[in-house]
Specification:
The chain is α/β, with parallel strands linked by helices and 339 residues long. Helix content is 55%, strand content 12%. The mean pLDDT is 95.
Length: 339
């Protein structure tokens, strides 16, 4: 059975009338959700920790700001938008004591619910509204009168209208303008983690860097290697995003298309698929979540995580990339890193 897709006409923003929404966190997703809801006429509070650098920023944007605990206490709907590894502690300390009957606990990713890090009481709604795009895009698309597609899931329906509340929220952040796909916490969590690891981040970055290394080791100028194996990735991905694989292949040369068909299967082999299946299995059985949370815990001290981050930052392609990106007048050098 295919899951339903909801659009603007299926959502009723008045479901949020008289309700207060607390947005916990004011990072990439947090600022977008808070501002979009606020501009949709929803009563919004931003919940932050004392001394947060985002406090003044949120107030300057015209939003009410209070501690996470006070925001949870005063809100009917509490959307948690901080890092996965920090959510369980924040939930126990600041949110759980204020989860009275009939409130709605919301997430933009199913990790903490699916893996049992957060176990809400049975008398509250537990929903997910997950935009399929980064926060700055959720914000810019809303401002342009459009929206980023969202996933929606209901884990607990204590009030009988949890789905309708979630759809109203999706409309408020602009997602219903594009479409809201019904899913489950399990499906979203497992497919999202797999996509990030095997394809979008882990797979693509490793593939680009291996190509870069292969050309450099063969004696080619690293700048040529960067252009051909890393820089141009965006051009191809944009074509796929716009028109699928067929549209991309229509737009490239016959030489490139022929090489696509003949070489792709040599790189992505049955052995690669076996590895992908093992990655998915480790996600499904909780192995990845356990390893991740241990490394990110106070006991783990993020030692392994920081070592991997340091090693990745020092890869030769990063050094060459900083030089190449300066050539582009439209590129605001490393703007994502400086924010």
């Amino acid at each position: 059975m295919e899951n339903r897709i909801f659009y603007q006409q299926d959502c009723d923003l008045s479901r949020l009338d008289g309700k207060t929404v607390a947005i916990i966190g004011y990072g990439s997703q947090g600022h977008a959700h808070a501002l979009n809801l606020h501009e949709s006429g929803v009563d919004v509070i931003v919940g932050l920790y004392e001394g947060s650098k985002s406090w003044a920023k949120a107030e300057a944007a015209g939003l009410r700001v209070m501690t996470a605990a006070d925001a949870a206490k005063n809100a009917d709907i509490i959307m948690i938008l901080i890092n996965d590894e920090k959510q369980a502690k924040l939930y126990r300390e600041s949110i759980e004591p204020h989860l009275t009957t009939g409130k709605t606990l919301a997430f933009a990713h199913g990790f903490n619910i699916h893996f049992g890090c957060i176990k809400p009481p049975k008398d509250v709604n537990v929903i997910m509204i997950a935009p399929k795009g980064p926060g700055h895009t959720v914000r810019s698309e809303y401002q342009a009168g459009k929206g980023v597609p969202c996933l929606i899931a209901v884990e607990q329906d204590a009030t009988g209208d949890a789905l309708e509340i979630g759809l109203a929220y999706a409309l408020g952040i602009g997602g219903a303008r594009a479409g809201v796909l019904e899913t489950t916490f399990r499906t979203e969590t497992e497919t999202d983690l797999f996509g990030e690891q095997a394809v979008l981040c882990g797979g693509v970055c490793a593939l680009m860097q291996a190509g870069f290394e292969t050309l450099c080791e063969a004696g080619y100028d690293p700048r040529n290697a960067y252009f051909e194996c890393i820089h141009e990735m965006k051009l191809i991905v944009d074509l796929i995003y716009q028109s699928g694989f067929e549209g991309m292949r229509y737009s490239i040369s016959n030489t490139a298309e022929y090489g696509d068909y003949t070489t792709g299967p040599k790189l992505i082999t049955d052995e690669t698929k076996k590895t992908m299946k093992k990655i998915l299995s480790d996600i499904q059985d909780g192995t990845f979540a356990k390893d991740f949370l241990l490394d990110m815990s106070d006991a783990g001290g993020q030692v392994h995580f920081n070592a991997m981050r340091k090693k990745a930052k020092e890869h030769p392609s990063e050094v060459v990339g900083r030089e190449i990106r300066k050539l582009y007048s439209w590129s605001d050098e490393d703007k994502l890193i400086n924010n």
